[in-house]
Amino acid sequence: MFDKVACEKRMRIAILDCYIDEPTCLGVPPYISPYPRYIAGAIWSTDKSIDVRYLTIDDLRKGTERSRIIEEVDILVVIAGMVVPGKYLSTYPAHPKEIRRYLENLAKPIKILCGPAAVFGFGIGGGIRTRELKDFFDFVVKGDPEIFIRDFLKEGEGADPCARREGAEEIRDFAIRGAELVRQHQNYPDYLIAEVETYRGCPRSISGGCSFCAEPLKGLPDFRPAEDIVEEIKALYDNGVRHFRIGNQPCIFSYDAKDVGKEEFPRPNPEAIERLFKGIKKVAPNLKTLHIDNANPGVIARYPEESKRIAKIICNYHTPGDVAAFGVESADPKVIKENNLKAYPEDVIKAVEVLNEVGSRRGFNGLPELLPGLNFVFGLKGESKETFVHDFNLLKEILDRGLMIRRINLRQVIPLPGTRMYEVGEKIIKKHKEIFKRFKKRVREEIDREMLKRILPHGTVMRDVYTEIHIGKITFARQLGSYPILVGIPGKLELNKFMDVKVIDYGYRSVTAIPHPLEINKIPIETLEAIPGIGRKRALRIVRSRPFSGEEDLFEILDNKDMARRLIDMGISFK
C-alpha cells in the first residue's frame, strides 16, 4: 500500500479538518487548531517537495472546488472529534455518519484518522458515550498525529500509530513550518484565530486529576519553551494571521509553574508569563487579537498575589474582551470530593474576585479587559438534586456581590475511555435529565441576562463585530476572541464584514445591537424598527422619506422631535 505512494513523482497529501473541540483545544472556525498545522509541518520537515492540501468539512458540505482534492491525493489525513459539547454559530464539527458518507466511496487514498475521535471515539453530545469508526480507516492514530505522519513517510506501514512525541522540543520545527498552512483556510486571513499550545498534561495528574478529564492521562505538564511558542507565532504572523489564542493547555496561570510534580497546585511563575507575552508582542506588533483560555480557579485562589501579577501582565499585552475559563465543574462539596475537582465554592469566588479586581476595566472594544468564565459539568459521581441548588447558589452569590463573569457553560459530561467517569457512563445524566433542563433555563433567565447587562450596559459600543450569518431577518455577528458574545442585529446586513454596533437590548446569552454609526439612508427597515421608540410606523415613514441630507430632514419628517433628537444622539451617518 505505502510502496505505491512512495513511487509517485510528487506525493500528494490532503489534510481534511472536520473540526475538533477538546477541553483544552478548539478547532471550530473561526479557530484553527494546532493539529493540521503540526501535521503539515511534519510532512514538510520530512520532504519539502510533498504537495500538501488543506480543506475542511465545510468544503465537502458545500461541494466547493477544493472538495475534489480528496479524490486525487495519495494520502488523506482526517482530523476529527468532539469531546466537549459546544454551541456553534455558522458551522459545527463533523458527525461520524457524515464523514462516512463523504469518504466511503474513496478507493485511492490511504485514509488516516487523527484527533480526539481517533483516541476516544467520536463524541456526539453531552451525556453520550463516544462512538468509534475504526473499520473505515487504514490507520487510526492514538498517539501524536505529527509523529506518526513523520514516521509513516519514512518507514511506511511499520510506523507506530500510538507513538507520542518525546518532548515539547520535538514539535518546534513542525509548528513553525506548518504555519504556512493557514493560507489555505477558507477564513484566511481576516476571520481566523490560531489556537496556540503552551503545554500538555496536568499538574494535578499526581492526584489523578478530575474524574472526567483526559488531560491527566497525558501525565505531568510538558511545557513548550517560550522561545518556541514565540517563533511559531512569528511564523503565523508572517503568514498573515492577526488573531491568536494562547490556549491548548489546562491552566495558563500554571505555565512553567514552580514545583510541578511535587504540588498538584504549583506556585505560578509570573516571570515566565511575562517572557512569553512580551515575546509575542515583539514578533507580532500589529496583532488584532491576543486572548487566553483555561485557568484553574484552585491555583488562583491559593496564590492570589502571583495570580494578580499574571493577570496584570496579560492585560498589559493582550487585547480586551479576554476570558479565563474556570473549570468549576460543581459547587457541591460531595461531588467535588468524589470527583477530585479543582476548587470549592469559596475558592471559585476568591478567584473571580482576583480577576475582577484586575480585569474589570473596560477596553477599547467595549468589553472588560479580562473576566472569568465558569464551566459546569453535570452527570458526575455523587450528583443529586442538591447539587443543582449548590450550583445556583454559587452563581447567585457572584451576581449579588456585584462581580462579573463573561460566560456560564453548562454541559453534560461525555464519558471518555480511560477516565474514571467512563465506568459510570450516562446513568446519572439520564436520572437528572429533567432537573438539568429546568436548572439550565433558570440560570439563563435569572443569572445570564443580568450578567450581560452588567458586562455590556445599554448603549455600549462594541467594536469590530464580524457579521457571520442570517437567520430570518436578523444578522448574527461576533467579535473575534475567546467565547465571543453573540450579537443579533435586526435586518439582513452584508455578511463577512467588520462593523461597530451599539447595544440596545438583551437576550439570555446574546445582545441586540444596531450599527454604529447608524447609516440612516441605508439600513434595513427591520433595523430601524428595532430601535426603542421607533416602531413600525415611524420606520416606514423614515424609509419612504429617504434619502436624508442632514438632521433638519429628520426633524421635519418625524412627528416626535424628542425621538429625532434621541436618534441623532445615538450617532447617525447621512451618507
SSE layout:
Elements: H1 2-6, E1 12-22, E2 25-26, E3 31-32, H2 34-46, E4 51-56, H3 57-62, E5 75-82, H4 96-103, E6 110-114, H5 116-120, E7 139-140, H6 145-155, H7 172-177, E8 193-197, E9 199-200, E10 222-223, H8 226-238, E11 243-247, H9 270-283, E12 289-292, E13 294-295, H10 297-302, H11 304-317, E14 322-329, H12 333-338, H13 345-359, E15 370-378, H14 385-400, E16 407-412, H15 427-431, H16 433-455, E17 461-471, E18 474-479, E19 486-490, E20 498-506, E21 510-515, E22 518-519, H17 525-530, H18 535-545, H19 551-557, H20 561-571, E23 572-573
Parallel strand pairs: 1-4, 1-5, 3-8, 5-6, 6-7, 8-11, 11-12, 13-14, 14-15, 15-16, 19-21, 22-23
Antiparallel strand pairs: 1-2, 9-10, 17-18, 17-20, 18-19, 20-21
Helix pairs in contact: 2-6, 8-9, 9-11, 11-13, 14-16
The total beta strand count reads 23
Helical content band: 25-40%
Shape: globular
Q: Beta-strand percentage? A: 15-25%
Structural class of the helix and strand makeup? alpha/beta
Please give a structural write-up:
The protein has 575 residues and is α/β, with parallel strands linked by helices. The protein has 20 helices and 23 strands. The strands form six sheets. Strands 1, 2, 4, 5, 6 and 7 form a six-stranded mixed β-sheet that branches. α9 (270-283) links the parallel β11 (243-247) and β12. α2 (34-46) packs parallel to α6 (145-155), α9 (270-283) packs parallel to α11 (304-317) and α14 (385-400) packs parallel to α16 (433-455). The longest helix has 23 residues, at 433-455. The model has no long low-confidence stretch (mean pLDDT 93).
